[in-house]
Amino acid sequence: MQDEYQQEANLKKPILALALAAGSTLALTGISAQEQPQVPGVVDPARVTAGNYTLDASHTLVSWQVGHFGFNDYFGLFGQIEGTMTLDPADIEATEFDITVPITSVSVPSDGLRDHLLRPGKDGGAPDFFGPEPTPAQFTSTSVRKTSETTAVATGQLTMNGKTGPVTMLVEFSGAGENPMNKKQTVGFHARARIDRTDWGIDYAAPLVDNIVDLEISAAFERD
């Protein structure tokens, strides 16, 4: 009989331990859920407010990708970008924006390549790429066409390297809400575009270095 009681007690111990562990886990989960801060930006078009916006230059980037000799792709970034936007969520197709990208902000892992991108031409001739004091690139929208509740196609004119031509971007709304740092209403977008660099007179080593350049834009705008 004593052996039976002992066996029953031994069975209850692991069951009790599991119950205590489960209770502790639930308690910790509840505390974690209460303490975890909420992400301020949400992909919810209802959060977007109409008005004039200014680009958040500290958190906006343009990345570029180009094929190198058919071996692999090379990547770079532009930053310190400025711009404005007029936005009304009730009339997306009336959206207008103007973006300025300083070419001298170009960032690449190779110091030698950055030097080449901004190098003056030989013997007073045209530079291979942009030259040492290039005028900032500028994109001005001409139309915005809504394609879903969170996507649109934006068309505009890109002026770069002394030439102007059309560019189309696929734009995706990525979040809206109040920036907890400065309390400004903020809206974010991701966009993709593809250009032929030779259309802007950047012909060096084409097509060995691919003439097609893929662009990705991550932009945050703050309401004025």
Automatic annotation (TrEMBL):
* Domain Lipid/polyisoprenoid-binding YceI-like residue range list: 52-222
Pfam families per UniProt: YceI
Coiled-coil stretches noted in the UniProt entry, renumbered to this chain: none
Transmembrane residues, as ranges? none
The protein's name: Polyisoprenoid-binding protein
Organism this protein belongs to? Qipengyuania flava
